Amino acid sequence: MIRIEGLRKEFDKGTVALEKLDLTFEEATFVALLGPSGCGKTTTLNCVAGLLEPTEGKIFFDDRDVTGLAPKDRNIGMVFQSYALYPHMKVIDNIAFPLKQKGVDKEARHQKARETAKKLQIEHLLERRPAQLSGGQQQRVAMARALVKEPKILLLDEPMSNLDARLKIEIRDEIKRIQQDLGLTSIIVTHDQEEAMAIADKIAILDNGRIQQFDTPEVLYHYPINLFVANFMGNPPMNFIDARVEGDAAAPCLAGKAFRLPLAGELAAKAAGSMGRAVKIGVRPHQIAVHDQAAPGRVPMGLQIVENLGKELMLSGLVGENFVRVTLAEADAERYRTIRQEEGAVHLELLHLNIFDAETGLNLAMEG
Ligand SMILES: Nc1ncnc2c1ncn2[C@@H]1O[C@H](COP(=O)(O)OP(=O)(O)OP(=O)(O)O)[C@@H](O)[C@H]1O
Ligand SMILES: [Mg+2]
């Protein structure tokens, strides 16, 4: 288990990279730190690794305070964004390097390097130098070097950023398998939300040195806590439709330019507290059903573009002033195969929606 308590990092000249971060990573889980460039992901990871000294706050591995410990005393394996392999060393010596630092003799450390290389299927590359390897092979060598000490904790900083799309998926699966096989507590830094969703048990979303939300991929995807998270997760992105909470507290509705959506259940109860406020309805492109006919509770969309994406059909157009995308899976899409953009209007049924306060950006359903 890794616990970060009140972590703050201020670089000189007053650059605050992290503001009071609190996070707990459970034993043997895979957590992703996700966020835009400059939000503080690498800084967080380097503090956990001991490469950076926190300005304030503490870091614990299990119940042990490691805040003051040097990186070599933390029993971690780390893969850096640029693999940082030593160009003049053979692969075997690159992999064995952390053991050399620990004073393990040559024969023993080569033996261990060979075993680790075998797990990663790079035994045949041991006599080469890094320049003679492909990007994917270099990545595996960097992984082997991180794992050779049999660490309990594995830290990965954008480990796949130099790989092509296909290899990324392969390596991603491999990293996940190793993490599970060895029961490692693992943190991966990435700005790729798809990668984070695929690999991680939990995702911490950072913006501007602050945690926005820390939860499972499912919760982040379906119940983003604010507009930032909602925007960040999902591709194509979530749609936002401007509306206002109207009606009376017993039966609130969302009123837009050309629609009124009655609300029911828990969502109604939450929305009732925001009567009269401007909101943004958040709805994902595949959580919309498309109808030809207008009906109460449906939202009219002026159809502009119809694209066939192969496994699905994407319809886009305007709801009021908001550009909205809808994806229809093949099964649903059948009757829309022949739909044409000249046809004008379709009517949207929002199957799962989130409501965000337009001013604060907060998800009404997640408050209180
Ligand atoms: N050594 C440093 N000195 C001063 N400021 C720094 C230093 N390292 C990072 N920063 C600043 O701290 C903030 C967070 O940087 P960090 O490297 O953690 O971002 P990141 O989320 O990893 O971004 P990226 O996705 O681009 O790698 C940035 O504003 C950055 O400019
Ligand atoms: Mg970084």
**Shape, per Cα inertia axes:** elongated
- Record field, number of beta strands: 20
Name the helix and strand elements from N-terminus to C-terminus, one letter apiece. EEEHEEEHHHEHEHEEHHEEEHEEEEEHEE
Major sheet size, sense and barrel closure: 6 strands, mixed
Q: What proportion strand?
A: 25-35%
Terminus-to-terminus distance: 29 Å
Write the layout of secondary structure elements.
Layout: E1 2-11, E2 15-25, E3 30-34, H1 41-49, E4 56-61, E5 64-65, E6 76-79, H2 91-101, H3 106-119, H4 135-147, E7 153-157, H5 165-182, E8 185-190, H6 193-199, E9 202-207, E10 210-215, H7 217-222, H8 227-232, E11 239-248, E12 251-255, E13 260-262, H9 265-272, E14 278-283, E15 288-291, E16 299-308, E17 312-319, E18 322-329, H10 330-333, E19 345-350, E20 354-357
Parallel strand pairs: 3-8, 3-9, 6-7, 7-8
Antiparallel strand pairs: 1-2, 1-4, 4-5, 9-10, 11-12, 11-14, 12-13, 14-20, 15-19, 16-17, 16-19, 17-18
Helix pairs in contact: 2-3, 2-4, 3-4, 4-5
This protein binds adenosine-5'-triphosphate and magnesium ion.
